[in-house]
Every structure is written in C-alpha cells, then in structure tokens.
Amino acid sequence: MTDITKQTLSELINNIKTKKISSEEVTKAFIDRSEKSKKLNTYITESFDRAIKKAKQFDQNPNFDLKLPGIPIAVKDLFCTKDVKTTAGSKILNNFIPTYESTVTQNIWNEGAILLGKLNCDEFAMGSSNETSYFGNVESPIDENLVPGGSSGGSASALAANLTPVTIGTDTGGSIRQPASFTGTVGLKPTYGSCSRYGIVAFASSLDQAGPMSQNVKDCAILNEVISSYDEKDSTSVDFKRGKYSVELSKNIKGKKIGIPKEYRVDGMPKEIEELWQKGINFAKDCGAEIIDISLPHTTYALPTYYIVAPAEASSNLARYDGVKYGFRSKGDNLIDMYEKTRSEGFGSEVQRRVMIGTYVLSSGYYDAYYLKAQKVRNLIKNDFDEAYKKVDAILTPSTPSSAFKIGEKKDDPVSMYLNDIFTVPVNLAGLPGISIPAGHDKKGYPLGLQIIGKAFDEQNILNIAYSMEEKINFKNKIADWWIK
Ligand code: GLN
C-alpha cells in the first residue's frame, strides 16, 4: 500500500471501509508527518491527542456508512470549533475558545471526520499570502521562499504537503482558489448561500463562503457534498436541492458551452499565464466542450468595487472586538482609552488599514460616492454574468495573474498584493461558484491554476468540467519533502 499520507481522500475512505487500515493508523500517520513539518508553520493549534482519542473511539465502534469514516482533517482557523481555540490568525482572538461549533465543521464531524487542528491564515482572512497572520508566515512546500497564497495559506500548504488529506478554507475574494492555484491543489468556492456561514469568523458577510480544498476533483466533490447544507442559523443560507456531487460526478461534458471572457486578458499578464489559458481552452475542446468568446464588460471595476465593499463590511463586523466581549483586552485609563489600545494592539496593520478604509467609505460624507456606487457597480458585474450565461454553461479563466511570489516580495505594496485577486473577486461579487484546478507549471516549476466559473447553484456542472479536464491535464505536483526534519 502507498504511504498513508500520500493517499487521496477517496482511497483513505475505501481503505478504512474495507478495514485495510484503521482510523488510528491514518490519524497517527498525518500527525507524525505534521510533527516533522513544523518548519512550514501550517498549524496555529494542534489537537493531536484529542484526534488520536477520537480515532480509537471510531475504531472501537466504527460506522462505515458515514461519508468521512474516521478521516482526520485539519481546518482553517476561521471556523469556530467548540472547546478548541479559534484565532482567525489574530492576536485579538488569541485566547478565544468558542462554546459552539460552526455548521460546516459540525457537518464533517457528523460524517465521521476527526479534527487534527486549526490551520494558519491571514488575519481575519485579509490577505493573499498568509503574511498578515499574527502567528507568522507559512512556507509553501513548493519552495521555502514562496508564499502558499492566502488567506487560506496554512490550509493550502498543509494540504499540498500531505499533512491533511483534505481541508476546508473560506473565500471572500479568492482565498480558496488563489492558494490552491499557488500550491498545485484543487479549491472550490461554492455559490453564496450554499455553505452555512454560522460559526465562521466574519470578514465581509455578503462575500464570505466556506469551501473544500483537496488533491483532486473527486475529493473536492466528496467534501462539498458534506459541507454544503441548508442552515436556518444563517439567514443567507439558501434552501435549494443539493446534488450528490461525488455520486453524480461525470467526465462527459460533450457539447457544454464554455465562455472565454476577453476582459480577463489583462495588461501585463505574463505570457505563461496566457499560454496556460490557451492550453486549458484546447483541453476543454478535447473533452468535447464548445468554446465561445464572451464579454464581461465591467470586469475592470471588480477589484476597486471589492476593495470598497469588503472593507466596509469588515469595519462593521470587526466593531465587536472592543476588549469587552471577546479575546484580548489592553489596559486603558478609561473606557475609550481601553477600546483604542485594545484595537491598536490587537489588530495587525492590514486589518487596521481595512477598518479605516471601511469606516471612511461608510461615513456620511462619502457613503454615496463610494459605498453606494460600489453596490451599483457590483450589480452591473452580476448582470454581466447573467448575460453571459444566456450563451454559455460555464466560464474558463486563469485563477491568478501570476504564479506564487516570494515571501516579503509584495508585503509593503498593498496595491500589487490586491492585484492578485483580479480573476477571483468578480465571482464573489456575483455570488457564483468557482473552482481552481492545477493545470501546469511556469518556467520556475511553480504551479499554475485554471478557474472554472459556474452559474449559481451549478456546482455539479463545474465539478464535472474540472473532473474531465483534470484527466487530460494530468498535473503532477513537484514536491520534494525538503522541509521534513
Ligand atoms: N485576498 C483578498 C483579500 O485580502 C481575499 C481574501 C479572502 O478571500 N478571504 O481581501
């Protein structure tokens, strides 16, 4: 049998169900590898002892009808986990132990999964490189100088390094798809309203969505099937009939119409990305799809719109961290002084930047000029997609405008950092599902991803397209275990 940690989720499920391996063996194997992989700094909180105890319990009383029978999984530290510290990558929540469980994580435990621990992420999920985390940078297993992407950087790095068989991230403007693209893994942002936001530390409520990250498309479908559910505890959860994504997964995409939006050919896009996109188009044709040129005319406004809407919502959501209700509190001479010190010591500089931008665009003098205007443009962006979907079934684009960059390279240049999100944010603004699949390497050997965007609630369709293209692409991640001690 291949090394346990190198097996896919579906292989592990099979091997546990057929009793070839026990949950305890699987759990220990991932823990052992995680212990040797501290250099990557993927974990904020490890719950290894608890995981082994749970695995033993599963083996003593197994239920093989569950969808994730005794499978250990580490998740992004943005999901509240009952009795396990949840920090959102922030000093302000460094001592926060939730008394409740997020719906998405509850869904995976209900299907037999076991929590390995909480994975590093950008502070409050604000970032594209995992460099804003209070708990330090995460290294990419591709190369120690590279960022794994963000904000689900710890998740992507742990997944690519085989420290967890699959993981769950969140995506507000690209935080699942961009790190997936940077690390040669698969990441799906489901339709807004598909996965419950209950118990996820809020960043921008109208954009945030949880989603699966995996080594391949089939595992992504298995996990999405478990985490997507209607939840009355989230007022934006949508009660639609969810597919059996893994059961209905099919490689037959003959006759599917796939749109290529001309506005995604942005100025200064590296030739490698252009070539990757063309390669993707050819693969889609080989799979039997019909390629159609489309236009999404308001694409250029997506990034500025996002960087108004997201900070506005963040500034409002983060108002709750005042030193009284949660987490860290600084000493002050009076109440106002305590608030100010708590927030200036508890939040890092990127979070402070977003709170300031958000407060500014919501302030009475600027509300109409910025926030209201951005909401109108957001609507136009959504309309572009609606128009396009009259002609096509899905849209194919690159996931990111470049491959992974070096740690520190963009840290002091927020605009160039924000440009990373150029292909992913329109999808969040329109509330649509999007998946990134690994599709090639650049000349340095770093992975590059392609994004498939679907109609709302049409996850099955983009999973099928991804599944069929994955076979043709036949991507192999080039990861040598250089960090293992
Ligand atoms: N990189 C984007 C940001 O910093 C997206 C983050 C996310 O999706 N959580 O806002």
How is the topology of this model organized?
Layout: H1 9-17, H2 23-35, E1 43-46, H3 48-60, E2 72-76, H4 103-110, E3 114-119, H5 153-160, E4 167-170, H6 177-183, E5 186-189, E6 210-214, H7 217-227, E7 257-261, H8 271-286, E8 290-294, H9 302-317, H10 335-346, H11 349-362, H12 367-388, E9 394-398, H13 414-418, H14 425-429, E10 434-441, E11 447-454, H15 459-473
Helix pairs in contact: 2-3, 5-6, 7-15, 8-15, 9-11, 9-12
The chain binds glutamine.
Glutamine is lined by residues 125-128, 151, 171-175, 203, 310, 421.
| Assembly level | single chain
Helix content: 25-40%
Question: In whole angstroms, how far apart are the ends?
Answer: 24 Å
**Topology pattern, helix = H, strand = E:** HHEHEHEHEHEEHEHEHHHHEHHEEH
Low-confidence stretches: none
Radius of gyration: 21 Å
- Give the cofactors and ligands: glutamine
Averaged pLDDT: 97
Largest β sheet strand count, sense and barrel closure = 11 strands, mixed
Q: Please, what is the CATH homologous superfamily of the domain at 7-256?
A: Amidase signature (AS) domain
Helix count? Answer: 15
> Strand order, biggest sheet?
1-3-2-4-6-5-10-11-9-7-8
What percentage of amino acids are in beta strands? 5-15%
Shape category: globular
Q: Please identify the top-level CATH class of the domain at 7-256.
A: Alpha Beta
* CATH fold assignment of the domain at 7-256: Amidase signature (AS) enzymes
